[in-house]
Each structure stands twice: as structure tokens, then as C-alpha cells.
Amino acid sequence: MKRFCSVFLCVVLAALCLFGCGKKETSTLTVEAEYPRDYEGTVLNVYNWGQYISDGSEGSLNVNKEFEKLTGIHVNYSEYDSNESLYTKLKSGGAAYDIVIPSDYMIARLITENLLQKFDVTALSNYKYIADEFKNLYFDPANEYSVPYQFCYVGLIYNSTMVEGSPDSWGVMWDKKYAGNILNFNNSRDAFGVAQYYLQQDVNSNNKADWDAAFEKLKEQKPLIQSYVMDEVFNKMEGGNAAIAPYYSGDYVTMKEVNPDLAFVYPKEGSNASVDSVCIPASAGNVEAAKLYINFLMEPEVALANAEAIYYGSPNTAVTSNPDYSLRGNEVIYPPQEVVSKMQYFQNLDPETLAYINNLWNQLKIS
Amino acid sequence: MKKSSFFSRMAVAPHMVWAVVFIVVPLLAVIYYAFTNAKGQFSFESIFKLRDYLPTIGLSMWFGLLSTVICFLLAYPFAYFLSQKQANAQRTMILLVMLPMWMNLLIRTYSWMLILERNGILNKLLTLIGLGRPNGFLNTGGAVVLGMVYNYLPYMILPIFTIMSKLDRSVIEAAQDLGGSRFNVLFRVIFPLSLPGVVSGITMVFVPSVSTFYISQKLGGGSFLLIGDAIESQFQSVNNFNLGASLSLILMVLILISMAIMNRFTDDEEGGMII
Amino acid sequence: MKAVSRFYLALVYVFLYAPIAVLIFFSFNAGRSTAVFEGFSLKWYGEVVKDSATLTALQNTLVLAVLSSIAATVIGTAAAVGIDRMRSKVLKSATMSITNVPMMNPDIVTGISMMLLFVFAGRLLHVNNVLGFGTLLIAHITFNLPYVILNVLPKLRQTDPHLEEAAQDLGCTPLSAFFKATLPSIMGSVFSGLIMAFTLSLDDFVISYFVTGPNFQTLPLRIYAMTKKTVKPDMYALSTIIFFVILLLLVLINLSQARSEKKEKALRQ
């Protein structure tokens, strides 16, 4: 038995050996703003979505490492998987993060609960690169709390070998021809959103009758649904296991690289827009370093590297006007104005409505 | 005997302290939330809402029971055959049972999805011999149970195996000498002796499988609402800690009752009885 | 009977290893998909060995799993001995019920309730940023404990209590009687408890999410967070490396054991 206990030690040792393999790379990054080394030796706690930064993989720029080199600030980088997980963690107050990147409706909620702090965004020299249409958004009308990081839209992904013609309406998700080949979101807000856009409703309604009507639509759709999915959608659509799925624009681009049969459309009834913005929590301990970091994220080269790595839309004009940007002018990532004008943002709903939706959602699953 | 009982009282002490601080205190927080409303006032509000969740609770218990039974049926012969091997081979083989579980749960589940998908490996193989199913095997209750069985099987095999591996050979030989058939020896002698291990295994499979959520979400195609999912969504999407807490409290009570029923049959207190 | 036994064992192993085979296969994918194989490549192995964030997370995971499983095994084995000798049935079952709570609660409930406890304790002690490695370790030990106890307890019931008494009669102290008489006979189950605890700790993400802080991220947390985008085959490559390293170790240990056993036999003759 003693020998077997040594297995554990050996595994640990073997894994530790792996760490010797990391290579040192030289930096060729040019930055526009000045980064004083006043905060050298301090620690910056960054809390971001998973795989939501250019991290040096596949020859890309390692944003955090570059920031460390430039400023001498140590970046403690960790990740969350949903706005709600982030919220619970911030609300508890057990850990002080200096940078968080929540989505629109969650920023609204965090502001009302005093979990974010104001900072002067115009004092950040690179803020000039942020496009005007991403300023003064509903959750931060005076640009006091947030700087937009990446954005995306919900659209309809379909497999052109399995779907006839080119659909232009959410209605195709109710087409009996495609029974068993349709996917829908496996989270209540997004799934209801699909039905609500189809019904031409306000997705932020607090009228129960609206939600009931959307619920009836979803119930009608349920027999046609193959499964309710989130991240599984990649494997399903790439492998040709389903014909139609609503998902985020940037993620479609990654799927299309694997399966060229896939196509994308923004339904004519409109759909959902979402922006993730960089914020500083109220409990942050290293605010000055956080501001440096936010300014750094808006550097043209850094923002470009992030946009190339994440495949979502960049609100940074230095990126969108850069001729080397591989997704420049991509109509899925950057749809024309007439499409964008029909989009809605999710807003933070009151607890009663949230509970009501969740109840309907559970009923849908049980039915 | 007196000395030893003092010693054993000391032995359980660190665990007792640990359990009070890190289990009982958080449990009190759960109970507090279960019996208050969003404003922090005492209320039965969330307890009354539980009625809506009866089908969900029923389904979770059913899936948990099913996967426990299947795990037991798979694990018992496995542990028996394994215990007949040489000591040296046994140790390696038992670690090989656990090894797959050292790979990440999410990646393991993705792999199962690829196997069970309509264009998946299993369906392609079965189509070759004419047994394929046009929609594959995913998104069914069967797929959910399969996922549970897969992930919890080692937790059934290990405790049964450790008991079987050192069963008193002389007892078994005596039974055989007395003319017991192989079948009789297995059921009359080996099974009763291995019962404590079986009880442990059942506990370690049934209890966590009732409250699981990830496996059912992925393999069930999101079309099954299990109690784990319902609780998760209360804490995450709705941010209603009160209802989440009362749901998990009722779940706990139901599990304790099931354990008590099991103990009635096995006359064993390992699983823990009434609160 | 031997053939049946072999066939059955093999069948269960095939079941256990089927998804692992798929995982290994896709780690060699030239494309970035984990569903469509686009050709053979070692690209993702190159990516993962220079991904310092992932390697740090792996290191964290292993340190946490080793420490928490050893601690839980020590506390849990001692507790099992104590529980086994309890004379009051009510006390016994009450202790077991409490012990099993972390197993009964969905992970999210255990995670959030422990987080609330730690934050509350942190406020009492005036510690900001209480969440981190320490709290993570405590949480892992807590949810590992029932598994260790449930493994050790049945074995204790099987062992002969007179053994320890005899040892004491021969002049051993109660403690040394335990180590010399009882422990060797329950070693197999202690070991089962240890590897179960190690396994659970290695794979947990829900509880870990809530009780960890900004400077300690584990591999499951990192992988789970990747689902905002998609999990790339680099994680499959990492899993494959881990898998074969462990497998190699198992084979080596088995061989060396077989050899030493042969030597012993030869010496005896």
C-alpha cells in the first residue's frame, strides 16, 4: 500500500516537471499611453469570463503578461462562467476584485446594489477610441462606471444542407418540417427572448400576460426541439447533428470555420444585443492599477489582439478601422445599421418578474 | 475495553469539531433561509411553493434510484470477480477503475455526448448492423441515467471490493465443504458478509446522484428538470436564496427518509438514520 | 467461470474507458473543434505545455487534491474508528447523518452556505479577502470526509475488535494497539477512501467556485469557465498527458511489485 501512496507523490512531481517547459517570448508591443511604474510590485485581481482575452495561445499576444512587463504590476487572473456566478461572488464581499467584465443587465444590477464604483473614464487617454454608439448605453447613461470591452448579437445559425432556402424569421424555429432538428437556449431569459422577438414583444416587459404568451409559444415549440443547449451548441452544429440554433454572432464565426455548411441570419423581427464592459467593483483594493489596466485594454494593438482572439465585436475604432483586422467589415460581427436598430438589450428585471419567468421555464421543462 | 473507548472518543473528536463548524453552521444558514422571505422575516412562503416542485423531486428520486440499482448490479459481480484475482493485480485494477474519473467531468460528459449523438460513434456502429436510431441516444432519460451510472459506478465498486477482498476464506471454504452450491455460497454466505460495503456503496451513489445537475443538463438535452437544476436556477438565475434553501432542505429530508428505509431492511446504521 | 470473469471485467472497463478513448482521439485534432476531426496534429500539445495559466491551475488543483484528501483521510479514519465504537445507536446515526450533509446537498448549496460562513467569520476576525486557498482547502476536506468515513466504517465492522484488545493485553498503549493491530487490517479501505477523496477534490468546480479567491484558480474552474466560448482540444491534450503519465506510473509500480514478490518467494524457497 505504501508504494501506492507514492503514486500520488509521483503524479504531483511529474506535473511539476511540466512547468519547466514554458518558453520566454520577446515583446514587440507598442503602446500609445504612458504607463508609470508607480504601482510596481502591487497586485491586480482581474476577474473575467473564460477565454475572453488574448492569452498567448496559437501565437497571439499575451495581454496580461505584456501588462505585467510594462507596469511591474502582478496580474492575478481568474475566471467565471456566468454573470450570475459573478454577482453572487461580488455580493458576498469575501473577495476583492479590481477588474470585472459583466454584461449590460448585470452592470445595471450591480450599480443599483452599489457594488461598482465610479471612475473618470474620460481621464483614460485611450477612451477616445471607443465608438460613440457604445457610449451612454442604457445601463451607464453618463459613462461613469464602465468601458465597453466586447459586444455580440444573437442570431439564427442554420445548416444550409438541412434547411431549405434562407430563412429570415424566427418563425423557422416553429416549422414542423424541422422537428427534432431545432435547438434553443438552455437559459430562461435567452429562450424566452426568441419567442418574444417572434411575437414582437418588449423583451424587458414586466407584464405577466406578455410572458404567458411567450410561454405558450415555447410550449408549442417544445415537441419540435431536439435539445435546450448552451455550450453544447458548438459540437452539435459543427457535427451536423442539428439544423437550426439561435446563438451569439461571434461564436457562429468559430463554428463556421469547422463546418462550412453553416450559415447565419439576423431574423427580421429583431434580436438581442449584448455588451460586456470593464468595471471596477466597489470593494477594489488597487483602483489606480485597475485604471491603468482598463486603459491598456483599449490600446489599439491590445484591443486588436483581443478582438482577433475572442471573435466578438470590438467597440474600439482603432480596431474596426485597422486594415489588418481579419474580421473587418464582417457583416455577422458588425451588422449594418438597419439590423442593429431592431436589436434590444436585456435589462435587469425586478425579482418578481424573474421568479415568474423561472416558474414558467420550469413548467416548460416539466410539461 | 474502557481504555479503548476513551481512545475512540478522542478519535472522533476532531471530526466532531469539524462537522459542527463547517457542516452544522452552514446547515443552520440553509435552514434560516428556508424559513424566511426575501425581507428576512420568518415565513413559510418558500415551503408552500414546494408543491410546484413535486414532479421534479419525484423524477430526481426515480433517476437516483434507477442509477443506484444499475450501479449495484454492475458493481457487485465486478467486485466479486476482482476479489478473485491475485493481490498484485487487484491493486492496479482497482486504481484503473478510478482513473477515468480523474479526467475532467465536463470533458468526459462532452465525450459521452459525442458517442451518443445521432451522428455519433455508437449510432454509426449500430447502423452498420441495422440497429441505429435516427435521433441517436442523447436527450433521453436513458442517457441521463447512463451518465449517472458512469460517473458513480466507481463509488459502488470500491467499498464492495474492499470488503470482498479480505472476506474470511475459511468461512467460504467451510460453506463449500458443507455442500453449499456456488450459488448458495454466494447468496447465503458472501452477500450477507459484504452487506456493510454494499450499504456504503448505495449511499455514495444514491445520495449524490439525486442532487446532480450537470449530467442531466448535458445528456438530457435540457429537457429534464431535476431537483439539482431547480435549486441551481433559484440560486443563480432568480437569485432567490430562500426558495433554493427550502428546496434543498426538503431534498435532504427525503434522502434521510430513504436512507432510514434502507437501514430498516439491512439493519445497519452506517448510512445515517432519522435526523 | 474464469472466462466469464475475464469477459465481464473487460466489458466494464470498456464502458469506463469509452469516453476516455474519445477524449484522447480528439486531442490529436488539427482543427479547433472537439466534434469534427480534421486531421492528425500534435499542435494542441504544443499549445498546452506553454499555456502558463493552465499549468498553474493544474498545479493548484493537484496541491489542493493531495492536501485535502490526506487531511480528510486522517480525520475521517479516526472518526470512523470513533463512530464504530459508539455504543448509542442514536448518537451513531445522528453523527452519520450530519457527516453526510455535504453529500446530500446539491453542490451549489454547500458552496454558497460555506461561502457565507467564511465571509461571516472573516468579518468577525477583521480579515478582508477571506476567500482563497485556505477556505478552499477547508471546503474540500469537508465534502471529502463522508466518503472516507463511508469507506472505512464497513471494514471496521468486519475486523475483529478482540485483536486490539489482545494487543493491549500484551502491553501496547491504546494508540499503538490501533496502529499495530487495527490499522493494518483496514488499510485497504483507508486507501479506497483516500483515492475517492482525491478524485472528488480533483473534479469539483461548483463548491470551489464559491469558496475560492482571486489568487487561486483550479483547473476545473478554468475549464468550466471556458464554456462561454468553447473548450478547445488543448484541454483534451492536457487530460491525455495526465492520463498516460498516471498509466505509466501504475504499470511501473505493478512491475516492481511483481518483481519484489517473486524475489520474496525465491528467498523463502
Question: What labels would you give this structure?
Answer:
heterotrimer; B: 275 residues; mainly alpha; MetI-like fold; 12 helices; 74% helix; C: 269 residues; 0% strand; globular
Write the layout of secondary structure elements.
The complex is a heterotrimer of chains A (367), B (275) and C (269).
Chain A: H1 2-18, E1 43-49, H2 63-71, E2 74-80, H3 83-92, E3 99-100, H4 104-112, E4 146-159, E5 182-185, H5 188-198, H6 208-221, E6 225-229, H7 233-238, E7 244-248, H8 249-258, E8 262-265, E9 272-279, H9 287-297, H10 300-310, H11 317-320, H12 337-340, E10 344-345, H13 351-366
Parallel strand pairs in A: 1-2, 1-3, 5-6, 9-10
Antiparallel strand pairs in A: 4-7, 4-8, 4-9
Helix pairs in contact in A: 5-6, 6-13
Chain B: H1 2-34, H2 45-49, H3 54-83, H4 87-98, H5 105-116, H6 121-128, H7 141-165, H8 169-177, H9 182-210, H10 214-219, H11 227-235, H12 241-266
Helix pairs in contact in B: 1-12, 3-7, 3-9, 7-9, 8-9, 9-12, 11-12
Chain C: H1 2-27, H2 43-49, H3 52-84, H4 89-99, H5 101-104, H6 107-124, H7 133-158, H8 161-169, H9 174-203, H10 206-211, H11 219-225, H12 233-268
In oligomeric terms, what are we looking at?
Answer: heterotrimer
At CATH level 3, the topology of the domain at 55-228 in chain C is: MetI-like fold
**Helical proportion of chain A, percent range:** 25-40%
CATH topology of the largest domain in chain A: D-Maltodextrin-Binding Protein, domain 2
Give the structure's gist in a few sentences.
With 367 residues, chain A is an alpha/beta fold. Helix content of chain A is 36%, strand content 16%. Chain C is mostly helical.
Structure description:
The complex is a heterotrimer of chains A (367), B (275) and C (269). Chain A is α/β, with parallel strands linked by helices and 367 residues long. Helices cover 36% and strands 16% of the residues of chain A. Chain A has helices at residues 2-18, 63-71, 83-92, 104-112, 188-198, 208-221, 233-238, 249-258, 287-297, 300-310, 317-320, 337-340, 351-366, and strands spanning 43-49, 74-80, 99-100, 146-159, 182-185, 225-229, 244-248, 262-265, 272-279, 344-345. In chain A, the strands form three sheets. In chain A, strands 4, 7, 8, 9 and 10 form a five-stranded mixed beta sheet that branches. A three-stranded parallel beta sheet of chain A has the order 2-1-3. Chain B is mainly α and 275 residues long. Chain B has one domain (52-266): MetI-like fold, CATH 1.10.3720. Chain B is 74% helix and 0% strand. Chain B is built from twelve helices and no strands. In chain B, helix 3 packs parallel to helix 7 (141-165) and helix 11 packs antiparallel against helix 12 (241-266). The longest helix of chain B has 33 residues, at 2-34. Mean pLDDT of chain B is 88; it is low at 269-275. Chain C is mainly alpha-helical. Chain C has a domain at 55-228: MetI-like (MetI-like fold). Chain C has helices at residues 2-27, 43-49, 52-84, 89-99, 101-104, 107-124, 133-158, 161-169, 174-203, 206-211, 219-225, 233-268. In chain C, helix 3 packs parallel to helix 7 (133-158). Classes of the chains: A alpha/beta (367), B mainly alpha (275), C mainly alpha (269). At the B-C interface, helix 1, helix 3, helix 4, helix 5 and helix 7 of B face helix 1, helix 3, helix 4, helix 5 and helix 6 of C.
